[in-house]
């Protein structure tokens, strides 16, 4: 799951900041949860508990970001008179079709 979330984080770099904020802490949270089970299996209860607390803190942040994104999408879908910022990143990393179009415009 950590690898999948890392790939999701890389792919989210072209969408918005909330997705980046969701996927970035997921990677270490899965590592902390795996470390918790590993430490518990070796009889290190204190280390396991610390790993669980760290993962819980990261997952708490992820939950708040997820609810914010849900609320932002609902505001747009219900046509409220305001929008919530989600940090549009689409202009930072251009896609392959956009690069090809610009290259074609420059070369004529």
Explain this structure:
The protein is mainly alpha-helical and 108 residues long. Helices cover 75% and strands 0% of the residues. It has four helices and no strands. The protein has helices at 2-12, 17-41, 45-77, 96-107. Helix 1 runs antiparallel to helix 2 (17-41) and helix 2 (17-41) runs antiparallel to helix 3. The longest helix has 33 residues, at 45-77. The termini are far apart. The relative contact order is 0.14. The model has no long low-confidence stretch (mean pLDDT 93).
Distance between the termini: 46 Å
- Beta-strand proportion: under 5%
Please tell me what the overall shape is: flat
Structural class: mainly alpha
Order of helices and strands: HHHH
Overall mean confidence score, pLDDT: 93
Overall strand count: 0
Low-confidence stretches: none
Evaluate the radius of gyration: 19 Å
Biggest sheet features: none
Output the number of helix runs.
Answer: 4
Helix content: over 70%
Could you write a compact summary of the structure shown?
Helix content is 75%, strand content 0%. By secondary structure, it is mainly alpha-helical.
Question: How are the secondary structure elements laid out?
Answer:
Layout: H1 2-12, H2 17-41, H3 45-77, H4 96-107
Can you give keywords for this protein?
about 0% strand; mainly alpha; about 110 residues; flat
